[in-house]
Specification:
This protein has 325 residues and is mainly α. The chain is built from 18 helices and no strands. The chain starts with a helix and ends with a helix.
Length: 325
C-alpha cells in the first residue's frame, strides 16, 4: 500500500476495518450525528430552548429517519458508479448484499415514518423542511449537480444546511434570523470541509468522471478555495455572538480556539496542497469544528453562561467606574 492510500484509509476506513450490516450501511449512519447536532444548534438559537422531551425526540427521530432515507436513495442512484470505484465497489448494493427493491422500500418507509413523526409530534413546517433537505440531497446534489459541475458541493451543500432550520422551526413554528445564520454558516463550512476529503479521493473521482474540484482544478487551486471558504466560515461564526438570544459573550470567547485551529490547518494545507496528511488533519478537524460550534451554542444557553455574563458586566462596570474617577 502506498503513502496516499495509507493516509486515505485512515480517513475513510475500509470495510475490513469497520464493517456495518448491509441494511445499516446504505443509511450512511456516519453522516447522521452531525446533522442532528446542527438541528440542536438551530433549537438552541431560539427563545423556546429547551424544548419538551417529546418534541425533541420527535424532531431528532424524524431527522434521523429522513437522513437514512436520503442516504439509501443516494446509494441506489450511484450503485453503478460505485461498482466502478475501488473504494466503493464492496458497498452493500454494488456487492449484491441487498437488492435495489429492498433498499427502495426501506427508503420510502423511512421517509413516511419521518413525515408522520414530524407532523404528529412537531409541526408541518419542520416536516416540510426535513423533506426539502432529503430531496435537495438526492435530486439537487446527487442527481443534478454532482456529475456535472465542480461547484456541486457549493450549491448542493444546502441539503446539509437545512437541519438548523428544522431545529428552529420545531422550537418556534417559524424560522428566525438566528436559524438562517446557522444555515449560512453550514453552507460556508461545507465546501472547505468536503474539499479537504476530496483532495484525498481525487483520483477515485477522476477515474469515474465525477468533476470534484481537486480532480478538475488540482490541489493547489482547491487549497486556495478552501482558504477562502474557511475565512468566510470564521467570519460568519463570529456573528453567532449576536444570533444567540443570550450567552453570546461566552460563545465568542470559547469560539476563539476553534477558529484559530481551523485557520492554522487551512494555512498548512495551503502551503503544501499535495500533502495528504494535512488534508486529512483539516478534514477531521472540520468535523470536530462543526460539532464544537453546536456544543458552544448549547453551553451558551445554560445558567452558567448567564452567570458568566452577569459577572463580566459587573467587572466591566467596576473597571469603567475606576477609570472615570
Amino acid at each position: 500500500m502506498n503513502y496516499k492510500s495509507s493516509i486515505r484509509d485512515e480517513v475513510v476506513p475500509s470495510r475490513k476495518r469497520l464493517t456495518l450490516p448491509p441494511w445499516l450501511e446504505v443509511a450512511k449512519p456516519r453522516l447522521i450525528p452531525l446533522l442532528l447536532a446542527t438541528t440542536l444548534g438551530g433549537m438552541a438559537l431560539t427563545e423556546e430552548w429547551p424544548l419538551s422531551s417529546p418534541k425533541l425526540i420527535c424532531t431528532l427521530g424524524g431527522g434521523a429517519l429522513a437522513a437514512a432515507a436520503a442516504g439509501a436513495l443516494n446509494c441506489l442512484w450511484e450503485m453503478e458508479l460505485d461498482k466502478r470505484m475501488t473504494r466503493t465497489s464492496k458497498r452493500a448494493l454494488p456487492a449484491g448484499k441487498l437488492s435495489s427493491e429492498t433498499v427502495f422500500l426501506a427508503a420510502v418507509s423511512c421517509t413516511l415514518a419521518a413525515s408522520m413523526l414530524l407532523v404528529s409530534g412537531v409541526n408541518y413546517l419542520a416536516a416540510g423542511l426535513t423533506l426539502l433537505g432529503l430531496f435537495s440531497y438526492v435530486i439537487l446534489y446527487t442527481v443534478i449537480l454532482k456529475p456535472r459541475t465542480t461547484k456541486n458541493i457549493v450549491f448542493g451543500g444546502v441539503a446539509g444546511a437545512i437541519p438548523p432550520l428544522v431545529g428552529a422551526s420545531a422550537a418556534t413554528g417559524h424560522v428566525g434570523l438566528s436559524g438562517w445564520w446557522l444555515f449560512s454558516l453550514v453552507m460556508l463550512w461545507t465546501p472547505a470541509h468536503f474539499w479537504a476529503l476530496a483532495i484525498l479521493l481525487k483520483d477515485d473521482y477522476a477515474s469515474v468522471g465525477i468533476p470534484m474540484l481537486p480532480s478538475v482544478k488540482g490541489s493547489v487551486f482547491t487549497a486556495k478555495a478552501i482558504s477562502r471558504y474557511g475565512w468566510a466560515t470564521v467570519l460568519m461564526s463570529i456573528m453567532g455572538v449576536f444570533a444567540l438570544p443570550e450567552g453570546g459573550l461566552l460563545y465568542g470567547i470559547m469560539l476563539l480556539p476553534f477558529n484559530g485551529r481551523l485557520l492554522q490547518l487551512i494555512n498548512e494545507l495551503k502551503k503544501s496542497p499535495d500533502d495528504l496528511s494535512r488534508a486529512k488533519s483539516l478534514f477531521r478537524w472540520s468535523i470536530l469544528y462543526m460539532f464544537g460550534i453546536c456544543l458552544l451554542l448549547l453551553i451558551s444557553r445554560t445558567q452558567l453562561s448567564v452567570e458568566f455574563e452577569e459577572q463580566s458586566m459587573q467587572i466591566f462596570s467596576s473597571i469603567v467606574f475606576l477609570l472615570s474617577n
